[in-house]
């Protein structure tokens, strides 16, 4: 289950990503003439679209001035001249018609690299299908910024299949809720589906409850009077509101709650809001609960959930876990205890299998406990860990080793001597270890159980994900055993699949099926027994067992190591 909605990720990618690299076709032109070359090429394209293709001047200008990459590709083969470049481009266009949709899609704000996948097949000119351009012109005429129309197109392409008359009717229907043009534009950019239509009175079933919420927020609670009168400001505030609907909060039900906590949307940048949602999503709780937690307790956005140090046992005590349960945890999860960073708290709790408990404590009135928690100077210091940490600083590869240690802390291992023992046996960079850990989670391992496996058998993390996946598949499908068996015998994942696991298991299966072996050997006994002891066992099972083993089952190549 994805606990962080795809659309929330898109908020980052669309609004906080760096701009694309500028095209390099202009590098053939001397740098002092490039501004002139760009202006001349844009003017030539605008003249061509308006005078030759009969596109209204204002829209021809929008397309020409906002399609830099397409324009760059167009002029790459045209010789530059300080006196005649504009004419050269016009002459080229006269004999080499452009794909007008390509320039259009880039001009409305769609990334140039995505444009190719949106181009209609067998159509080059707007005259072949004017619907898209007419829709864009209608929206632009209402006040939508031309270079933001791509947001609407990518999310709700059906908007651009509607006639200009239909779009105007939908826009004025939204205005009737009490909004002027600029708020309507901000709402539509953040919630493109309000322009999709297709319902009673051209407003679909999910749109009316949304608009009721927005009326409550912007008009009844007067949030609108605090928003600057420009499209960007309204779009920004509506994006923040949309985050909560993307989390699963019900449309038509949270307008009053948003209105009573309007400072949340006025004071905090979207990055802060999304980063806190990301943090709580790591507790693996229903995403709607995360949204309601923040809506009801906006002050939680002020909390530093990244840098403070915590004591794991101190945090459990702080949130009211009983002495009996804390003693049980100390015995069962000693590798999690000690200090860690607040940013790792969700995974610390997952390692203890207490993530839902802690989140519910926060949600049900104990939210201030996070902000109020403080670590005493001498609390939970582990001397063995500190001594080992000092040795790392003077080792040959301190940076590499610290990256591995940071990974272990990130997945829930605390500052203790047991963590240092695990550290000594895991190999690879921090990012490689994280990739291997994540791949194991993807195979179905429970987080808490996987941490225990890593504690018991650290070398599990020393193998590439594909190798481990093959072993897990063999365990599940051919051996018919669930992942729970690895709680008992995690070292299974460290043995070579082709040279040890497969031949031994299949031979024992053959012996059992043919009535030659009546004893039920465990998987651990079959796989982990040393080679000499294994051969001796076969001799005791049946006189002919050895010959059968060497002739038909044993791995043929000489191999000094049966572990990966």
Offer a quick outline of the entry.
It is built from 32 helices and two strands.
Lay out the secondary structure.
Layout: H1 6-15, H2 34-52, H3 57-65, H4 68-75, H5 85-95, H6 100-107, H7 112-115, H8 131-142, H9 149-155, H10 164-175, H11 181-190, H12 207-220, H13 231-246, H14 255-260, H15 263-267, H16 270-281, H17 287-296, E1 309-311, H18 312-318, H19 323-332, E2 339-341, H20 345-351, H21 355-366, H22 368-372, H23 383-393, H24 398-410, H25 417-423, H26 430-442, H27 447-456, H28 465-478, H29 497-513, H30 523-528, H31 531-541, H32 545-553
Antiparallel strand pairs: 1-2
Sheet of most strands: 2 strands, antiparallel
Structural class: mainly alpha
Number of helices: 32
Q: State the assembly state of the protein chains.
A: single chain
Assign an overall shape.
extended
**Cα Rg:** 32 Å
Low-pLDDT segments:
1-9, 11-22
| Arithmetic mean of pLDDT | 88
Strand order of the largest sheet: 1-2
Count the beta strands.
2
Please report which band the strand proportion falls in: under 5%, 5-15%, 15-25%, 25-35%, 35-45% or over 45%. Answer: under 5%
- What is the first-to-last residue Cα distance? 32 Å
Helix content: 55-70%
GO molecular function, one term: nucleic acid binding
Organism: Gossypium hirsutum
Keywords: Transcription, Transcription regulation, Transcription termination, Transit peptide
InterPro entries: MTERF, MTERF_sf
Q: What would you say this structure looks like, in words?
A:
This protein is mainly α and 564 residues long. Among the domains are: 107 residues, no CATH class; 61 residues, no CATH class. It is 58% helix and 1% strand. The protein has 32 helices and two strands. A two-stranded antiparallel ribbon has the order 1-2. Helix 2 packs antiparallel against helix 3, helix 11 packs parallel to helix 13 and helix 23 packs parallel to helix 25.
């Amino acid at each position: 289950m994805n606990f962080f909605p795809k659309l929330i990720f898109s908020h980052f990618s669309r609004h906080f990503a760096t701009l694309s690299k500028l095209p390099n076709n202009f590098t053939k032109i001397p740098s002092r003439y490039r501004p002139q070359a760009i202006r001349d090429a844009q003017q030539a394209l605008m003249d061509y679209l308006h005078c030759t293709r009969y596109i209204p001047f204002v829209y021809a200008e929008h397309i020409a001035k906002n399609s830099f990459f397409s324009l760059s590709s167009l002029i790459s083969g045209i010789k530059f001249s300080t006196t005649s470049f504009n004419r050269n481009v016009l002459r080229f266009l006269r004999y080499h018609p452009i794909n007008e949709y390509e320039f259009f899609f880039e001009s409305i704000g769609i990334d140039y690299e995505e444009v190719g996948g949106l181009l209609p097949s067998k159509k080059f000119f707007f005259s072949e299908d004017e619907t898209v351009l007419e829709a864009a012109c209608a929206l632009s005429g209402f006040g939508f910024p031309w270079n933001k129309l791509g947001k609407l197109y990518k999310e709700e392409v059906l908007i651009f299949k509607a006639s200009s008359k239909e779009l105007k009717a939908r826009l004025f229907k939204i205005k009737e809720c009490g909004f002027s043009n600029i708020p309507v534009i901000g709402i539509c950019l953040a919630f493109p589906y309000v322009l999709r239509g297709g319902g009673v009175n051209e407003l679909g079933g999910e749109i009316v409850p949304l608009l009721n919420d927005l009326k409550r927020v912007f008009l009844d609670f007067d949030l609108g009077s605090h928003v600057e009168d420009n499209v960007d400001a309204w779009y920004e505030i509506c994006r923040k509101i949309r985050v909560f609907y993307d989390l699963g909060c019900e449309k038509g039900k949270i307008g009053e709650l948003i209105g009573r906590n309007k400072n949340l949307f006025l004071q905090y940048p979207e990055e802060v809001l999304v980063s806190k949602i990301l943090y709580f999503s790591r507790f693996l709780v229903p995403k709607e609960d995360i949204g309601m937690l923040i809506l009801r307790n906006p002050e939680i956005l002020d909390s530093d959930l990244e840098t403070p140090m915590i004591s794991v046992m101190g945090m459990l005590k702080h949130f009211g876990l009983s002495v009996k349960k804390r003693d049980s945890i100390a015995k069962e999860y000693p590798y999690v205890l000690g200090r860690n960073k607040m940013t790792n708290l969700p995974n610390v709790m997952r390692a203890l299998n207490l993530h839902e408990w802690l989140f519910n404590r926060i949600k049900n009135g104990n939210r201030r406990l996070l902000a109020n928690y403080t670590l005493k100077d001498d609390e939970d210091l582990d001397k063995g860990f500190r001594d080992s940490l000092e040795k790392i600083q003077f080792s040959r590869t301190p940076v590499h080793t610290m990256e591995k240690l940071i990974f272990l802390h990130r997945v829930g291992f605390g500052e203790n001597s047991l963590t240092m023992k695990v550290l000594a046996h895991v190999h690879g960079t921090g990012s490689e270890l994280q990739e291997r850990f994540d791949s194991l989670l993807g195979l179905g391992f429970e987080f808490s159980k996987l941490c225990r496996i890593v504690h018991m058998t650290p070398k599990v993390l020393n193998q590439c994900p594909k190798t481990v996946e093959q072993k897990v598949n063999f365990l599940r499908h051919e051996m018919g055993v669930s992942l729970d068996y690895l709680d008992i015998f995690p070292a299974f994942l460290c043995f070579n699949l082709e040279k040890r696991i497969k031949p031994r298991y299949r031979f024992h299966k053959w012996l059992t099926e043919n009535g030659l072996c009546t004893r039920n050997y465990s998987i651990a006994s079959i796989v982990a027994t040393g080679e000499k002891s294994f051969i001796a066992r076969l001799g005791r099972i049946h006189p002919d067992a050895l010959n059968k083993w060497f002739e038909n089952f044993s791995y043929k190549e000489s191999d000094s190591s049966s572990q990966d």
